[in-house]
Specification:
Helix content: 10-25%
Number of strands: 16
Distance between the termini: 56 Å
Largest sheet: 7 strands, mixed
Number of helices: 8
Strand content: 25-35%
Radius of gyration: 22 Å
Structural class: alpha/beta
């Protein structure tokens, strides 16, 4: 088929490569514009942009689409059978959604209607979902509201973090979009029940609230790795937590209290009153501008003694 691919981050790269390898004619690849990155703030293309250049595909980087008649006309002039969208980052106006003969198909990283929105993988881990997956959806103007074409699922293990789930779903998305294009399944409306939304994450979401129970804090560490990351404050310094695990505590203590010299932190019950016997063992830590270290090595240079209250 003659198609456009619209995506930006690493998640979308396997689908672009799969479409190209399958022999589909990729008339154009739409990505977010290059942005300053690194210490030198050099303009850096996004992962899909780099992959498209490697494959010899033409790239377009419009900064907006909804009020850009010229960009919409250029898209229509491509004379597409279909457009495939995966974490593109711009909202497509109605004219562009209707331009390809088979419309625009979205590779969404959840089992719709659960976790519509910007952070579905992180939301599934945060909420303790037992599974997640990929839904191929026919796009319409609403936020992830369109009818479903295909879905496939994977379990979320008790120690799974966002990177592993992300990579598995990215590869699944590439396989599933090929199946959708080949089989042209009938669209099925999303059920009205079970709709949830995954909001866009910010750095503030990474702050660890020790009043929460240990299982919830563990899910937050796993869900928000690598971005925005989780952290706490100690003596005015922000310390990042890259890995942790919930354990039973030997005694109750106020939330945020270090129970030993090996970074075992007392956690709460999720309410504002009472202590619990749950605790979170911090396994990998990082100071600003320093390398991430296993907790034992970190603590040799930055002691966190028992009895300390963490912020």
């Amino acid at each position: 088929m003659r198609l456009a691919f619209m995506g930006s981050p690493d998640f979308a790269v396997p689908a672009l490569r799969a479409l190209h390898a399958a022999g589909h004619e990729v008339a154009a690849v739409y990505t977010q514009p290059p942005r300053p990155s690194g210490r030198g703030h050099r303009e850096t293309p996004c992962p899909v942009h780099r992959a498209a250049l490697e494959l010899g595909l033409p790239v377009r980087n419009p900064t907006r689409l909804r009020r850009d008649a010229e960009a919409q006309a250029e898209f229509a002039a491509l004379d597409l059978d279909v457009a495939v969208v995966a974490a593109y980052g711009l909202i497509l106006p109605a004219a562009m959604l209707a331009a390809p003969r088979r419309g625009c198909l979205n590779i969404h990283a959840s089992l719709l209607p659960r976790w519509r929105g910007a952070g579905p993988i992180q939301a599934a881990i945060l909420e303790g979902d037992a599974e997640t997956g990929i839904t191929i959806m026919q796009m319409e103007e609403g936020l992830d509201t369109g009818p479903m074409l295909l879905a496939s699922r994977i379990p979320i293990g008790p120690r799974d973090a966002t990177p592993a789930i992300h990579d598995a779903l990215a590869e699944m998305g590439g396989r599933l979009i090929l199946q959708a294009l080949a089989e042209n399944p009938a669209p099925v409306p999303q059920p009205e029940q079970g709709v949830t939304y995954a909001p866009k994450l910010s750095k503030a979401d990474g702050r660890l609230d020790w009043a929460q129970d240990a299982a919830a804090l563990d899910r937050r560490v796993r869900a928000l790795n690598p971005w925005p990351g989780t952290f706490f404050e100690h003596q005015g310094e922000v310390l990042r937590v890259l890995e942790a695990e919930p354990v039973a505590a030997s005694r109750a203590a106020p939330p945020g209290t270090l129970l030993d010299d090996a970074a075992l932190v007392a956690c709460g019950t999720g309410s504002s009153t009472g202590s619990s016997t749950g605790a979170l063992r911090l396994l990998r830590l990082q100071r600003a501008g320093r390398a991430a270290l296993p907790a034992a090595e970190f603590l040799r240079g930055h002691a966190l003694p028992a009895g300390t209250r963490l912020g």
